[in-house]
TrEMBL record:
InterPro entries: Aa-tRNA-synt_II, aa-tRNA-synth_II, aa-tRNA-synth_II/BPL/LPL, Asn-tRNA-ligase, Asp/Asn-tRNA-synth_IIb, NA-bd_OB-fold, NA-bd_OB_tRNA. Its EC number is 6.1.1.22. NCBIfam families: asnS (TIGR00457), PRK03932.1 (NF003037), PRK05159.1 (NF003483). This is Asparagine--tRNA ligase. It comes from Cytobacillus kochii. PROSITE patterns: AA_TRNA_LIGASE_II.
Amino acid sequence: MIKTTIAETYKYVDQEVKIGAWIANKRSSGKIAFLQLRDGSGFIQGVVVKADVSEEVFKAAKSVTQESSVYVIGKVQKEDRSPLGYELLVTDVEVIHESTDYPITPKNHGTEFLMDHRHLWLRSRKQHAVMKIRNEIIRATYEFFNENGFSKVDPPILTGSAPEGTSELFATKYFDEDAYLSQSGQLYMEAAAMALGKVFSFGPTFRAEKSKTRRHLIEFWMIEPEMAFYEFEDNLKVQEEYVSYIVQAVVKNCQVELKTLDRDVSKLEKIQAPFPRISYDEAITFLQEKGFDDITWGEDFGAPHETAIAESYDKPVFITHYPTKIKPFYMQPDAEREDVVLCADLIAPEGYGEIIGGSERIHDYELLKQRLAEHELDMDAYKWYLELRQYGSVPHSGFGLGLERTVAWISGVEHVRESIPFPRLLNRLYP
């Protein structure tokens, strides 16, 4: 007997196989039962015909409950109406464990109920599809950076200083010292780039920001590359090539999942480098002409502003050269305009907001020291960071991509909370 998974049934057309699965749903008549089976790798329909099986098997198929675990044996058949392209003509059903009173039934449930049962909600078709797309983005991320000569480096999660100030950090005690949960691995990745040239990290980050919007999480995952000898334009090129790469990987390898989510794939197929770009100055003028009287030069953009800009494009758009005063201390000023820095935010289409923030970093020791003083940051805490500019400093650049916003955009789900297995929100630490 061939034991396989649902995802690999295509290898065994017209052959009998054994699959371990759960009952996602079922329906039956007097002579036939349809079992919706899932095993983590995918979903497939199992057809049980009364005339072709024993009375015991048909009784088991009709009575088995939602989310019961089973072994099923059956012949793999092509089925064009199935999203998978195949179905299983079942000859035997063995119940491993019978599930009773499964709380998430095939009906509408409120968001809070589903979030309280997130550990079970993940089993549903749409949540399964989002997690598979997330996995593909992660796989393609490693592939892209490995193919382009980057080394993976893991920065610490516990830090003694804050890249962008301490106001939105979770503080803790590190024995008798103050410490923080990392909001970014960037500063450490700059040190790694001085050793290894091109590096990237992928890990959890934390923001103690009391926000309830559909774009925000308290704990999220960041991909953060840093590159020695890369200037501003080089940085933008890597960003657009990377984003194009992961989007097209999903389009190629997650067709079933995108269909499950009713995602308009034609919009994703357009995501190819290069991406359009506008300056912060141009963005301010554009918004004011669109009737946004609340925004003036020197202020940061909110979600409505980013959405309005993104609606003019069918690709992600770079907004470049933000005012120095609204950006972190480490960003390199424009040589021709010291009131703006060599930075860019990448805004996703369809209202998903900023998915990347990046910049060329200050590489001059005296200027960085000046910026630290202006931001009233502790020189002793940043001594090691300053030393990177004392021993062979070079122009260097980097960026951070927020994984969950990117997953939400590519998947087409409305809220970022569905793009991470167990979201941490302002009022949610369970399950």
